[in-house]
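Data availability (excerpt). The following record was deposited with the supplementary files.
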Amino acid sequence: MTVEYDITAVGHAIVDVLAPSDDAFLGRHDLHKGSMTLIDSHRALSLSEAMNESEMASGGSAGNTISGAASFGARCAYVGKVAHDAMGEFFAHDLRKMGVEFRTPVLHDDPTPTGRCLINVTPDGQRTMATFLGAAALVSPQDLDEEIIKASQITYLEGYLFDTPSGRETFAKASQIARSAGRKTAITLSDGFVVNRWREDLLAFIDRHIDVVFANENELLSLFQTDDFFKALRFLRARTDLAFVTRSEQGSVVAKLDDTHTIKAFPCEQVVDTTGAGDSYAAGVLFGLTQGLHVTACAELGSLAAAEVIGHYGPRAQVSLKQLAAEKGLI
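Predicted structure:
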């Protein structure tokens, strides 16, 4: 089958609602700084009313990644569930205006609203997330468009979705479709709480279905239950063809079975908001892989995208990443 898409992402279709905040606000609302907490619809409503003036973007981890990849010039598609409501319409419109194919059937005959992530950003750039999954948690294998996945170079799976039974079923089917067509699969571990709950299942899934793994240092250490970064890296190298591990200001590490490469973090004048940094890193890497670039060049594109997004509020690039990469001589 002809390659029509570079990347198809599968994840939680969530509208990101971002607002500036401070530690006092987090304390008043029992929010643990820098964490992601799952909340119900009642708390989502009360918290959103208390937050400062905010901005919205179609989000979710994989949504951020796919928009970043599209900004680099990749041909992208997305699978995620939204409801038939105003936020669902916003999500779909926002994604499609970036040139991302979005065909997932809207949730009907169910009162569950579209998911949203309420993100409070403190002056030190830390983001504290309170997430109401809503319709996003209801994505199922039936929502997959087999022809799109078969026509995609890489199918990218958002680890947050691994936390639901239907999400795990969707991942298994998506991976089977991709591999049956000779395509690549990738997964991001997403968060330490996902790893802690599903460690053994994640490892088994990676062994059976995944070609490329994305993780940050904490997720990697949790996955292999060790405090030794390089020991954990050796374990990961033995289980997957290719992995990219981010280490904040220390940059990132590219791990292959027979080699590793350390990539410096791209300079950033001021860290304003770390929301979407890892997602943007994955966007640059995935774009580079689909263009046949060396893995170190892919990681450099990821570092560039991450540096751009942490320099301002919001999880999406505010400039063309394709143009920025060209200016820096990376493509």
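Summary of structural features: The CA atoms of residues 162 and 168 lie 5 Å apart.
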